[in-house]
Amino acid sequence: MAKDLFHQVVKDALVKDGWNITHDQFPVDYGDVQMQIDLGAERLLAATKDKTIIAVEIKSFVRPSAISEFHTAVGQYLNYRRALRTQEPNRILYLAVPKQTYDEFFRLRFIEEGIEEYQIYLLVYDVEERSIVKWKK
């Protein structure tokens, strides 16, 4: 399966932020349907010795139609989240989007309302800095 244009950027940003990458292509099976989320990661919270585990679906939003990419991303996110609930209910799913796309497109009313209605968690990354600039639940 082809990796997203900014796959390595997000992977580097997560490591820089203290995450341990556990899966570079995280397999999720739901009956006869096999899917792959881009990344799986974990981080140990030293104070409580609790482990936070996440899955990250990476999107670049470089195609001419941002709304078309958004439709695809939302569909994938909802299907992956549903499958994760049965396989790993404690793993939190994030949709990773570039900062520029977040600032210009994800601030539109229709998009903001969709993110809220579908309860999509966002990880906003800076392509140039290879860093995470925002976690949004």
State the shape: globular
Instruction: Please state the structural category.
Output: alpha/beta
Which CATH class? Alpha Beta
Specify the oligomeric state.
single chain
Estimated helix fraction: 25-40%
Mean pLDDT: 92
Helical element count? 4
Core attributes:
Trna Endonuclease, Chain: A, domain 1, 137 residues, alpha/beta, 6 strands
Topology of helices and strands:
Elements: H1 7-16, E1 20-30, E2 33-45, E3 50-58, H2 66-87, E4 92-98, H3 99-104, H4 109-117, E5 122-126, E6 131-136
Describe the structure.
The protein is 34% helix and 37% strand. By secondary structure, the chain is α/β, with parallel strands linked by helices. The chain has a single domain, classed as Trna Endonuclease, Chain: A, domain 1. It has a 6-stranded mixed β-sheet, with helices on both faces. The chain is globular and about 40 Å long.
Short structural description:
This protein is of the alpha/beta class.
